[in-house]
Fold:
Amino acid sequence: MVEIIQISDLHYGSEFVPEYMENVISYIDEVRPDVVVCTGDIVHKGRVVQFRKVIEYINRIKEIAKFLAVPGNHDAKNSGLVYFEKIIGPRRSRMIIENKDTIIVGICSARDDMAEGMVGDEQLDWTGRCFNKNLENRIMALHHHLIPIPMSGQKFTTVRDAGEILEFAEIFEIDLVLMGHRHVPHAYVISWKDSTNTTFLYCGTSTSNKVRADDKPSFNHIYLNEGDLEVYMVNSTNLEKSLLLERKAYHTEFRRPRKTRIEHLLASAVWDE
Ligand SMILES: [Fe+2]
Structure:
């Protein structure tokens, strides 16, 4: 079994709350996961000074656990990708945790000064070669969404070549795809035609007040074991934990943290007649 903490959208430099970050670090310190994955928007404006400040927190995480990060569109503002690579880490990377039979590949969906995301053929080719290794737990991380989420805004949410990445997830039997971007905790499970599954898991903003609707700042605590998956959403303000998704054999349970637009609509008085 591999144990992962997913954090995302730290947004250092705008509505970042140091107390939430301290909570996240203390949780990681207590749990001691195999790896911490950060799915982008580490800083708000791609500014060098923001990267230089936030790395102090990230270095504390790196002292506790292995750490992998991918850039988000906010990291790519103001030519920030260059400094992401200099200060945080490579924009795309592969991590193998041999004793946990696990491979994690982080890819860069962010482009200089663009809100929308794209992976591109060249990177897809690189990713394919990265996954060409027979390990049980197969995880991919990127910032933008592959499938839109209700009530997460409707502009620039998905990568332009999302279809290609979905096909990739099927062909390379990816168990779990981790994403951030619109600060909405969510999940989808797709069962492919040969009965393998991929779970698409989205993380909220872990350390900022940039939440949507009545969401709370949060991060994900994940257990993945040969296809079985348990995901807990942890509230960054008080470290309260709640089950977000459980997937075992032929049973999947997903507890959506809040009502969608359609559910609000269906609950409104106009539908009573
Ligand atoms: Fe963000």
Observations:
- Residues 9, 11, 41, 72, 74, 181, 183 surround fe (ii) ion (CB under 6 Å).
- The radius of gyration is 18 Å.
- The chain is about 25% helix and 25% strand.
- The CA atoms of residues 32 and 65 lie 7 Å apart.
